[in-house]
Every structure is written in C-alpha cells, then in structure tokens.
Amino acid sequence: MTVAKTSFLVLDCAEPEALAEFYASLLDAEIQTMSDPDFVELVGHNGVHLAIRRDHGYAPPSWPRPEDAQQAHLRILVAHGDLDEAEREAVSLGAMPIETKDSIGSRSVRLYADPAGHSFSLAVSPRDESVDRGENAP
C-alpha cells in the first residue's frame, strides 16, 4: 500500500509574510500560518498549494543570466483571453516583468519576478490553445 502524500513548492525569501500576501492575491489563495513563524502556507482553488519559508541569508536568484541559473519557477495558467488582464493584475501586485529576446509582441508565455526575485510565468493554458486551434472541440 502506498502512503498518501501531498507535495507543494516552497519558496525561500527574506520576508515570508509579504511574499505570501503577493501570491495569495495573485492566486486567490488563503494564507495559513503555521506554528513556525518562518513558514507560511497558501491553499487556494484549483489545487494551489504553495509554501513560503524565511531564509535569513536569502539572496534572490538571477535569471535568465546563466551564472546563477534558475532551479525552478512557477507557471501560472490562464485562459487565452485572460492573459493581458492577468499580466496587469500581477504587475499591480508587485511583479516585475523579465525582459528576454523573445519578449516582443503578443506572447502566450510571459515572464516575471515576484517581489522577492523568484521567477514565474503567466501562460495560456494548453487546453485553451488546443480549443483555439479547433482540436478537441465539442
């Protein structure tokens, strides 16, 4: 018998409460404080489960520069018609757009850094892209 498990991504940062507020607003999630003041969990709709942990020696990752290559990032999926609005919302909450050579014009994936410097992307849900092409249409 397999033991039931739950997994979630943990982001390190200097100020977990502030970063938790950012992601709670962006992902419409609820902040759950733990007995450890350096650890905060977020639980939201559609399976969102994220944790934020205080690292007293935290330094933000640098990406896309190769010398401090990213280890992981969040990909937040949205409906095709909602990408521009999701971008406006993320930036209004404190996200910083990351410019790359491919970041000109309309894109189905857009890159950002959260207020603590972690990279994340807003992307059109693959299901929406296939519907737009007429695949799997009802």
Sum up the overall morphology in one term. Answer: globular
Give the tally of β-strands: 8
Number of helices: 3
The main sheet comes to: 4 strands, mixed
What share of the residues lie within helices?
A: 10-25%
- Beta-strand level of the residues, as a percent range? 25-35%
Order of helices and strands: EHEEEEHEEEH
Radius of gyration (Å)? 16 Å
Describe the structure.
This protein has 138 residues and is an alpha/beta fold. It has helices spanning 16-27, 83-93, 126-132, and strands at 9-13, 29-33, 39-44, 49-54, 74-78, 96-97, 109-113, 119-124. The chain is globular and about 40 Å long. It has a 4-stranded mixed sheet, with helices on one face. Residues 129-138 have low confidence and may be disordered.
Give me some keywords for this one.
138 residues; 4-stranded mixed sheet
Brief characterization of the structure:
The protein is of the alpha/beta class and about 140 residues long.
Explain the layout of strands and helices.
Blueprint (H helix, E strand, L loop, with lengths): L8 E5 L2 H12 L1 E5 L5 E6 L4 E6 L19 E5 L4 H11 L2 E2 L11 E5 L5 E6 L1 H7 L6
Parallel strand pairs: 1-4, 5-8
Antiparallel strand pairs: 2-3, 3-4, 6-7, 7-8
